[in-house]
Design a protein that fits this description.
- The protein is mainly alpha-helical and 182 residues long.
- The protein has six helices and five strands.
Length: 182
């Protein structure tokens, strides 16, 4: 859901970071924007911007603003920065506020993920949460310290992050045997 609720303004291309708002533990945090994804993400956002312009031209294009921001920033829900990075393909009608663009539904994403797992021929079970676990595991395998990984994942306690160390498959406590370096 953190990814699906991502807003355009929270992707900072110049700083190479993504701001996750109201994420795990109802906290905001920053994570990295992979340099390898920047060009394709920028092209994708141009398509999303075209969709937003079409919505505005058709007389809608408003998205939900969190908390009371819609009262504070009247019309802010039409601003490009507040649009979802992953918008829904359909426009539901809210009986109170009319037509508003929402983010991609998590069920649609899960279904697509399951199809991708099947198409890839993976034999191990994988869910959307596997992406988060894989992210943490790869950071630890690359030598990043547990506190950095804790911060990137938004865990309150380092004990929660420690569960990812068991999959490093480097022996007890993630330590490599000196014999392996000979």
């Amino acid at each position: 859901m953190e990814g699906l609720r991502l807003r355009v303004k929270d992707v900072e291309f110049t700083a190479n970071q993504i701001i996750v708002r109201d994420g795990k533990g109802a906290k905001d945090r920053m994570t990295m924007l992979p340099a390898a994804l920047k060009p394709s993400l920028q092209r994708y956002l141009e398509e999303v911007r075209a969709l937003h312009r079409a919505d505005l031209k058709a007389g809608y294009g408003q998205v939900y603003l969190p908390y009371a921001l819609d009262r504070k920033y009247t019309g802010g829900g039409r601003d490009w920065g507040w649009q979802y990075v992953f918008p829904a393909t359909v426009l539901p009608v809210d009986p109170r506020s009319g037509v508003r663009r929402r983010h991609l539904d998590e069920r649609v994403f899960r279904k697509g993920f399951r199809e991708a797992v099947k198409t890839a021929g993976l034999t191990k079970p994988a869910t959307c949460h596997t992406l988060r676990r894989s992210f943490a595991t790869h950071l630890l395998q690359d030598g990043y310290d547990i506190r950095t990984v804790q911060e990137l994942l938004g865990h309150r306690s380092v004990k929660t992050t420690m569960i990812y160390t068991h999959v490093l498959n480097r022996g007890g406590r993630g330590v490599m045997s000196p014999l392996d370096s000979l």
